[in-house]
């Protein structure tokens, strides 16, 4: 029986226009996993304020990153979509000889290609077994569980539900930690070590963690393992959280405030790595590489270097192949 591996990431607008961003944010921000404010209040805010105003503000940032990369890869359209497609192609090539029983494809939680459309196509092609692989190293209900919900929704009314496995997290998988460390070391070998390494993770509301989301703990464990792998003392690195949205408190310390403080103290150099992002996207290419670079330098900081996401690095593809092998062990030949 053939199995399909579906690599999944968040999603992105179909085009870098206010209309494209509105459609994407409408789908994304109406998911109760993403925003936990009581429904009637949140829907009033979403349709009354966010969707009329935010797309016009964010679309220019999307235009800036459209076709852009941080690692020299020629990118077509939205970087996150491009990298997810390439990750699937390269993982398929990597598994071709050893696991001919596995087909690799990709889908997005919001926007296109939707998980729904991909699963139905695969089912028509005869696949009866799936591994849904969220490309989120750290589990959060806002991301990973949102994908689990989509899987459950697809089959809610089906009698014959296929064999589905799910990847939960890989925040301290040795291959993940080693790939992150190698990406940092490659920069240090070429250009030397900065004064500080900032590990900036996407934030979530603090209340989500208080209510039981393990994301904060997993981010810190990733950081501790990475620092140990790099042999980095506690005074040389720090964790921070980026991409705050809305008025509530999110996980702290905030990336933008940290970089402004470091700039004001006259820090001469900083390297920034975003371990929660398996592909470069708006949040890394714009918020980290452009906005926060300016925050740090305008506040008086020196050199600022953004270290790209793992994207299509061979060690990242190898890590994906290893996790697939662990979830789907090869059956012994008879
Ligand atoms: C509103 C709440 C949000 C939560 C909670 C959240 C969690 C979260 N998101 C990612 C990864 C990505 N987010 C991206 C964009 C993005 N995120 C939010 C809001 C929340 N994210 C918004 C509104 C946006 C869109 C941009 C904007 O309007 O500011 C992206 C990039 C997509 C792209 O097109 O490039 C990624 C990737 C994680 C990992 C996470 C929780 C752990
Ligand atoms: Fe986000
Ligand atoms: Fe952002």
From TrEMBL:
Tell me what reaction this enzyme catalyses.
heme b + 2 H(+) = protoporphyrin IX + Fe(2+); Fe-coproporphyrin III + 2 H(+) = coproporphyrin III + Fe(2+)
Q: Which CDD domains match?
A: Ferrochelatase_C (cd00419), Ferrochelatase_N (cd03411)
Instruction: State whether keyword Lyase applies.
Output: yes
The residues the record assigns to binding Fe(2+) are 202, 283
As for subcellular location, the record says: Cytoplasm
Does the record carry Electron transport as a key word?
A: no
Assigned EC number: 4.98.1.1
Task: Quote the pathway field.
Answer: Porphyrin-containing compound metabolism; protoheme biosynthesis; protoheme from protoporphyrin-IX: step 1/1
- Lineage, top-rank taxon, reads Bacteria
Family annotation (Pfam families):
Ferrochelatase (PF00762)
| Keywords of this entry | Cytoplasm, Heme biosynthesis, Iron, Lyase, Metal-binding, Porphyrin biosynthesis
NCBIfam families, alphabetized = hemH
Q: What does this protein do?
A: Catalyzes the ferrous insertion into protoporphyrin IX.
Q: What is this protein called?
A: Ferrochelatase
Q: Which organism is it from?
A: Microbulbifer halophilus
- What gene name does this entry carry? hemH
